[in-house]
Structure formats: C-alpha cells, structure tokens
Design brief:
single chain; 114 residues; alpha+beta; 3-stranded antiparallel beta sheet; 5 helices; elongated
C-alpha cells in the first residue's frame, strides 16, 4: 500500500483547513476542553476564561468549518462536541509526509554510501 501524497489525506480531503484551525492557541484550548468527549455550551466554554461568548463562538465556527467540532441545538442553546476523525486524518497525512521523507533520506544515504 502506498503512502498518501503530501497533497491529500487518505480520503482525498484537503488537510489545510484542519491545520489552519489548529494553528491558533485559543482554538487548541477549546478543542482540548472538548476532547474529553463532553458536549458543552458556549457559556460553559467561555466560563473561567477572558474570552467573550462572541469570541468563543467565532473560534468554534472555525473549528466546525474544519470539521473538528459539531454543533447541536438544544432549545435556544448551541452545544459543541469534538469530532476526532479530522485529527486522525491529519495524523495520517503527516505519517505519509514522514514516510516520503524517510524514503528520500534513505535514497540519499544509499547514494552517498555507494
């Protein structure tokens, strides 16, 4: 089985939106809070932080657009839950990039030693 190309994940999805969403410290913190499997409201996610609910909402929408969280409507409230699949796909992508580098370095080493 061949490794995924550096331009795509195994399913062919573009990994860039996931990496872009994960490239923000606030979004990483929100995702870490949700990664325990709990479903939390915007109010719960903004509690004990300096972030406003509007700021939390903005960051959650970026995470949702990247597929990292899903939102559920419960009455008038939105609640958010972590989706691990995009992180697994990003990890798979990075594994493929790593495999390509390992192969390239192996070829270079064989060339230098010959």
């Amino acid at each position: 089985m061949s490794s995924p190309s550096p331009g795509a994940t195994e399913r062919g999805a573009d990994p860039a939106p996931v990496f872009a969403a994960l490239g923000d410290r606030t979004r990483l913190s929100l995702l870490a809070r949700l990664s325990d499997g709990g479903v939390r409201s915007i109010a719960a996610l903004s509690a004990d932080t300096t972030l406003t609910r509007q700021a939390v909402t903005k960051h959650l929408r970026v995470l949702e657009k990247a597929g990292l969280v899903r939102s559920l409507r419960v009455g008038r409230e939105s609640r958010f839950a972590y989706r691990p699949e995009p992180v697994a796909a990003a990890r798979s992508y990075l594994d493929g990039v790593s495999a390509h580098w390992d192969e390239a370095l192996g070829r270079l080493q064989a060339f230098v030693e010959s």
